[in-house]
Amino acid sequence: MEEIWGRGTRQRRALNMVWTAAGEYGFLPDFLAFHRDGSPDLYLNSVVGFAHRFYDQQLLHAYVCRLDESLLRELFSDILWLGIEHAVYDRELPQRPVMADLRREHARRFLLDQEDLPMQQLMMRSELIHTLKAGRCREVLTGRPGIRNPWDKALYEALKYPGRLTTEEIIGHTEDVLRRFFVFRFADLRHRRVWHISLGSRLNAWLRRILPAEQRRGAGMRRLQAALPAEHGGALPAETFRGWDGSAGAQRALAEVRQTFGNPLFSETKRLQIERELCVGAHRRAQLYFARGGKNEAGSHAANRAFFAANRTRYRLAIRQLRRRVQSSLSVCRQPVELRGKTGCFRPGLVWQALKQNDSRVFTLRRECSRASFDVMLLLDASESRVGQQALIASQAYAIASALCLCHIPVQVVSFCSTHGVTVFCQLKALEEESCEGIFDYSAQGWNRDGLALAGAERMLRQEGRSSLMLVLTDARPGDDLGLSADGLRPGRRYMGESAVQDAAAAARTLRRHGVKLVGLINSVLPEAVTGPAVREIYGKDSARIEEIGRLSRTVGTWIVRQIGQDAG
């Protein structure tokens, strides 16, 4: 358990694998590889490291950025890396015979991981890339790729890059493969014109809706499905367009989410009302679902609970420290409250309780008490990127919530993720609940559409005049497979990178205008130099890193004490 503290996570282990193979430490690779169970893939991470050692990274990065402007960006990037993998293996095997064993183990795990995949992952994966990867793994284990389709087989053979290739030759070879096997055509009544695979970003975004993509099979041309999976950068098929318009695809996605996450927190009428208000503009194809409780996975709850138990002493200390600091601030900033009693100021509105409930306390007295006049929401990023830190995040949230409850500060704990185009909120602890045990139901999966999540979380706050403090436990790396829809003259974009950060920052500004105090509590394996720009854009100066348990009570206590002082002032 100790290795999870600080940055000793699975992601950190994967980084160390890359750095060891590269013979260089401190750089951040574009890719990290993991098995289906979340454990780092030693072979593929070693390939990433060797590629960093052998090839010009500036040239490769520039070429990947160029591919990123194409219609099938994800597909082309995978093809590039399949070629690099073969070249690295061919080049390194004579010096490191152990690479053969690592490659066989990788192939065995890959084929094993493909068994009994959930429907969501089957729908999201690229069948072409899966065919190529599975073929390579079968050839490693049996000597035969087992690919029968002639076009697929020809592409598979073309990706066996020899180890002698330089960086420029790898790029040139990849260009030849893409020109040979992938062509984009624009047809009208008089002639056909061929477009290069790389287009300007704005032109590309518009053409992606109308331009048919084709593959070359042998000497002829065969048209692909007009709508490609979103992960390939193509347009989504009409039946998967999501939104509150009642389409069949939207209803199927919502039904699956209900089955996975359980009973709704809100009535369907209220859910639809919130969805109609928030899922507009660039989010118009998204949906919302509010669940009562977590995903109800016994395994996740047990693992989270076991991690907390193994580190009970340190967390109990953090709870006591945070409680003492908050109570000390509350005792100084005492708030006037009305207490019911049998003497004091008569309240006619309470007479019915005396008649119907035999409660004679129909008077009130104003006294100063050490009680906060604000609510706290802990908003937990529950995307797939948090799997390696799932137990740590659940334990941190439990410690924070427990300390606030002991100080009689109302606290609500909500996790969010995005799956099937639906942003899901799971209320792990309600404001009125005294027990924090439900927080251990926290489970990480799917994507994180932070902009929509911040807007939806605001609708879960109390709307009765009390101020609110929202603490977001996140790595500040928003991303979703459902892109941002075209909005007016602005073309659609992927919900990744800068576009996603800008969307989250806009939602954060809206929350602040509505009077919500928003604070980002950052927990990431990446250094501050990398996460800093996104954190500052979304949360401004209201953020802090909380990887270490020793900093948890001090950091969170600082923001709680500030909120107490602001409300008292």
UniProtKB/TrEMBL annotation:
Q: What InterPro entries does the database record attribute to this sequence?
A: vWFA_dom_sf
Task: Please identify the protein, giving its name as recorded.
Answer: VWFA domain-containing protein
Source organism: Selenomonas montiformis
